Amino acid sequence: MRGAVTIALSYNQFANSDKMSTEDSALMITSTIIVVLFSTVVFGSITKPLIEAVLLRHAKPAHSDATDIPSLDDLQISFLENCDPSDQGGTNQPAAGRVA
Known about the structure:
Layout: H1 4-14, H2 22-57, H3 72-82
């Protein structure tokens, strides 16, 4: 999709132009296609290395202590503390404190 609008506008402007000769119109359309293809190839090939360079600049240090990462057990315990015991699995019996 890159450049599709540019090529369409160029073709629309120069294909049926009475003000310019056919050779000039063909030159303008060809030049537009070349610029679109060149910029797509160049900027498309630069994108990945540029993103990697930016991410490396803002990356956290490789060495980190594991104290800031919660363990799976800690997450499971906090989840179980916050939920209703009757919601935990396949029984259809009402909870002890509920009135049916």
